[in-house]
């Protein structure tokens, strides 16, 4: 079946749009999953190390109809410039609101490592003292999640390259 010339034009116009959308979506998720956390890790190298006390350390549970999800929660208090602050950020690659069933063993070890009442060191942003973190390490296993959005960038690029070659 031969396509009408107008149908070929419409399809060929939509192809680069599809490719660009895939590339932009992939880049956005790479930024969220790796760019922001890595940027925070680099920024935090200049943060001030201060003592803190763990207020609570637990795995919070959320039961869904399909799964039992967990979230790491390590709440601690620290003092900076004669003011007391409270934070719950463990590292830059996870948030206390992120419920998951991935990495449960790692989260359990963290809870055991930081029991309530223990004295720890945290890193405080001198420009925004309410911002603090326990671990400034890069979590390489978390960066593996960037492979999926990288696939989107690859597919979108392939579509654009294919469209460009056919056009020439």
Question: Could you characterize the architecture of this molecule?
Answer:
The chain is of the alpha+beta class and 168 residues long. The chain has 4 helices and 5 strands, in the order αβββαββαα. It has a 5-stranded antiparallel β-sheet with strand order 3-2-1-4-5. The mean pLDDT is 81.
| Number of beta-strand segments | 5
Q: What is the radius of gyration computed over CA atoms, rounded to a whole number of angstroms?
A: 23 Å
Mean pLDDT across the residues is 81
| Continuous helix count | 4
The outline comes out as elongated
Largest sheet: 5 strands, antiparallel
Low-confidence stretches: none
What distance separates the N and C termini? 24 Å
List SSEs in N-to-C order. HEEEHEEHH
Strand order of the largest sheet: 3-2-1-4-5
Q: Which structural class do the helices and strands define?
A: alpha+beta
The portion of residues assigned to helices is 40-55%
Strand content: 25-35%
